[in-house]
Amino acid sequence: MSEFTAGEKDFLLDGRPVRLLSGALHYFRVHEAQWGHRLAMVRAMGLNCVETYVPWNLHEPRPGSYDDVEALGRFLDAAREAGLWAIVRPGPYICAEWENGGLPHWLTGRPRTGDAQYLGHVERWFCRLLPQVVARQIDRGGPVIMVQVENEYGSYGSDAEYLRRLAALLRETGVTVPLFTSDGPEDHMLTGGSLPGVLATVNFGSHARVAFETLRRHRPDGPLMCMEFWCGWFDHWGAEHVVRDPRDAAAALREILECGASVNLYMAHGGTSFAGWSGANRGGGDLHDGVLEPDVTSYDYDAPIDEFGCPTDKFWRFREVLAEYADGPLPELPPMPAQLGAGIEAHLTGWAPLSDVLETLGGPETTSPVPPTFEELDVDRGLVRYEVTVPGPRQPYPLIARGLRDLAVVYVDGERAGVLTEEDERLKEPVAGHARVELWVESLGRVNYGPRTGEAKGITGGLLHERQYLHGVRARGLRLDALEDVDGVPFRPLPEEGAPGLYRGTLTVRGAGDALLELPGWTRGFVWVNGFNLGRYWSAGPQQALYVPGPVLREGVNDVWVLEFEKAAPDRAPRLRSR
User: Fold this and answer.
1) Phi then psi for 481, rounded to 5 degrees?
2) Are 275 and 480 in contact (CB under 8 A)?
3) Cα–Cα dist 572/420, whole Å
4) Residues 372 and 299 in one domain
5) Distance from the first to the final alpha carbon of the chain
6) Is 152 a residue of the active site?
7) What is the CB neighbour count within 10 angstroms for residue 494?
């Protein structure tokens, strides 16, 4: 058993000064069978600690219904086996370019304040989660050395009583290791996000000396730590791929360490936002209140350990810097995971239109005067079909989906009529009555940062024909997790025109291993291999293929399902290839 504390200037392990050389690795973005390899890579880079967030919405999809909360404990055990300490950041909010910043879609009240209803949900969740952490603290023989209070709260709010209540809750549930907060190195962020008596850390990507000077104005004492050194960045659909020069990143890392500070690389290994859990941002400058910018499925993050778990040039440059601060020679790299032996094209065998998929796997249909939101239909990730009748006879008038989030494919009397977005809510061709209108709305990811975190999804402002609201809206939702079993879906022969819908087929694999899956000519949707949801694909780019973890594949025949929302290319089947 050991004691880890935060002294006046240094972190102390049993009274000895230690420097934390940590790296972020999210257990929920890496296939569990690959945790050991990724942790060994973290260790080989020269790090002595691993940090992870905990996504509340992944583990509590519905109030009081939990899904594999024990995964965190298994990951912490794996970190201990790898010879690493662990930092846990349980939220309740995590940002992380993750759906809704980790907050469940069903939350009510005023999230991230001292609101009693919200805190009641947090307390229930923490009482379920934190035993996984408490039992694995360093003073009990485990790897956990620090636990975070909230996350970058100064970027959002200034409710000091809320932070105090969270800190007290962590202590009440048995957390004995040091607590900390992390915020941007700006006065208003540190003022709103830090807490007296709790270690304050800062997050940045460069200019370490300036950042630490700002921190010292607020906290003259305590260890210096950059809790998020942004050594790479993430991508948005439809934008350019973002990279950071390895030499620049290594120089910034060296500056942090020359300041005598500890560091946590964000990310050491990013992994993948499987199953549609990618979040989104809002553009528009500092207000984060503009156009929706959905995050891609890959969370490679231009990290030193890439999405396949392989070392990059940045890895070797970081290893060279970190070796100067190691107690001895750094470990050798573990063997790299196997990669797919040969490329293979899927054999598609059946198709079901979206309407049949919705009828078989969707939730109950509702009818209401105004369109219900995704949240009211209990849809976290997936789509909703809104159906409304334009009464007649009447002249052609514009159809408007007011307050649309995020994207709708529109059909009038069964014929495709166009695609609507937040920026373009008006159908190009006017609609005459009598007509039946369907709007298939997909959530492209909930906002994970800024003042619009927690906003509703779907059609939030009503359906208008000219200036008149259309009432009697029929709505039905389809959650992505409902497609974990498609046996009941009535499949038909493949359509000739590449219609949207659910396609199924097989992949015959020889030499299973890590792979990429490509969908040339397909537009936008999701892919499952052997029931494992690889995430969203989108021809908008910049991501061109989906990462397939080797443990998902098996020798011989593998099942593949593709849910296409706009236009498929069945004559150009999905294909696997090595990287």
Assistant:
1) -70, -10
2) yes
3) 27
4) no
5) 44
6) yes
7) 18
Which residue is listed with tokens 């003259």?
A: 220
- Rounded Cα distance between 365 and 64, Å, is 24
3-state class (DSSP) for residue 263: strand
pTM as predicted? 0.97
Express each pLDDT in 473-525 by its tens digit: 999 999 999 999 999 999 999 998 999 999 999 999 999 999 999 999 999 99
The answer to which of 39-43, 111-115, 294-298, 518-522 has the lowest mean pLDDT is 111-115
Tell me the mean pLDDT in the region 59-65: 97
Can you give the pLDDT at residue 342?
87
pLDDT band at 235 (very low <50, low <70, confident <90, very high): very high
| 486 and 531 Cβ atoms separated by less than 8 Å | no
**475 and 506 fall within a common domain:** no
Beta carbons of 529 and 517 less than 8 angstroms apart: yes
As a whole number of angstroms, the distance between CA 392 and CA 99 comes to 41
**546 located within any domain:** yes
Judgement on whether residues 472 and 515 belong to the same structural domain of the protein: no
Q: Which of 152, 442, 564, 566 is catalytic?
A: 152
**DSSP-derived 3-state class of residue 317:** helix
Same-domain pairing of 429 and 365: yes
Nearest-10 crossing angle of helices 70-81, 35-45? 40
Phi and psi at residue 114, in whole multiples of 5°? -80, 15
Domain that holds residue 566: 344-350+492-577
Identify the H or E element spanning 292.
strand 292-294
CA dist., res. 346 & res. 569, Å (int): 12
Q: What is the pLDDT of residue 348?
A: 97
Of 481, 510, 538, the residue at which a domain comes to its end is 481
Closest CA to 21 of 287, 281, 326, 286: 326
In this structure, the dihedral spanned by the alpha carbons of residues 430, 432, 438 and 441, taken in order and rounded to 10 degrees, is 20
The H-or-E segment that residue 132 falls in is: helix 131-134
Q: How many residues does the chain have?
A: 579
Collapsed DSSP state (helix, strand, coil) of residue 416:
strand
pLDDT tens per residue, range 519-554: 999 999 999 999 999 999 999 999 999 999 999 999
Percentage, residues of the chain above pLDDT 90: 96
Catalytically annotated residue among 228, 375, 518, 566: 228
Q: Are residues 519 and 574 in contact, defined by beta-carbon separation less than 8 angstroms? A: yes
Q: Specify whether 518 is catalytic.
A: no
- Per the CB < 8 A criterion, the answer to whether 494 and 529 are in contact is no
Residue 64: CB atoms within 10 A of its CB come to: 9
Average pLDDT, the chain: 97
* Residue 23 near residue 301 (C-beta atoms within 8 A): no
